[in-house]
Task: inverse folding
């Protein structure tokens, strides 16, 4: 059994959160899909505001867990491609169910999401 001894645990999704579908206005990255059947590469856009937020959460002392409905291998490949391994504590497949007597919206009220093209803490220029 693994015990996470941190009350500040954050869960971060991969698709649509750390990476988004190809968009020529955003920075791009190519990720190898380690799939025994398809063996291909995927070109996606980097969601820079959310990546910055993940790094900030790590620096605040949060225990960062990244998950994906695409599975733990896909999540790990994305984390490696984005060079986020120093900021992520665990990677896992996204849960398909949870068992609790209380509905999730009663104890997990905050969903954090920044738009991919928003100016989130961009370095200031001389013109700004």
Result:
């Amino acid at each position: 059994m693994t015990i996470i001894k941190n009350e500040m645990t954050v869960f971060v999704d991969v698709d649509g959160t750390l990476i988004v579908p190809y968009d020529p206005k955003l920075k791009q990255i190519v990720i190898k899909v380690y799939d025994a059947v398809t063996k291909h590469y995927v070109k996606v856009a980097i969601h820079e505001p959310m990546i910055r937020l993940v790094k900030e959460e790590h620096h605040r002392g949060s225990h960062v867990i990244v998950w994906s409905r695409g599975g733990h291998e896909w999540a790990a490949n994305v984390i490696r491609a984005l060079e986020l391994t120093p900021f992520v504590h665990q990677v896992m497949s996204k849960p398909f169910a949870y068992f609790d007597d209380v509905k999730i919206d009663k104890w997990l009220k905050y969903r954090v999401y920044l738009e991919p093209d928003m100016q989130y803490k961009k370095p200031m220029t001389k013109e700004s």
Q: What stands out?
A: The longest helix spans residues 48-59.
